Amino acid sequence: MDHFAPESDSRAFRSALGSYATGVTVITALDAEGRPSGITANSFASVSLDPPLILWSPKRASRRFQTFTEAPVFAVHVLARDQQAACDAFVRPEGGFDLVPWREGPEGLPLLDGCLSLFLCRREAVLDGGDHAIILGRVWEAARRDGHPLLFQGGKYGGFRANNELHPGPEAEP
Ligand SMILES: Cc1cc2nc3c(=O)[nH]c(=O)nc-3n(C[C@H](O)[C@H](O)[C@H](O)COP(=O)(O)O)c2cc1C
Fold it and tell me: How many domains in the chain?
């Protein structure tokens, strides 16, 4: 195992962080002019069940940073494995609403079709996170369906395969 100081080797730091596998989300909101905005993000995390809180981190350098830190409400879409097109579409600064099916939801929020789960959030706090901010959201409505997630690890996308032989899930316990 190679050891390094993140401050002097940011490449190695990035690469070590990238070994942590995540799901992929698209966060949507309305900008100050009321136009739909969306961004692909894997910094999403659950925070609290009671009250229901989640977080994600927009990069300060992003052209969409202000839109997302100022939006009073936003939607988090957890992508399914067959939603690579949505993931790619919202990496682009001009957004991808012309490329994927979506509809207008509560409070005018743009909602993408076909995701695995959806969290409608009110901005609870925006915290300092270095070259990112940490947006804490309070979930007022959530939805889910069965399906397979899109995963991201080491700069690559893939799917999930349960390792039932090594670690039986909770429902397999006697
Ligand atoms: C898998 C994946 C995860 C990403 N996660 C984040 C994230 O959590 N926060 C973020 O600000 N940008 C994230 N990005 C980059 C944004 O989607 C976007 O491309 C980048 O911020 C450029 O933004 P801009 O065009 O608005 O300047 C991610 C990109 C990919 C492909």
Answer: 1
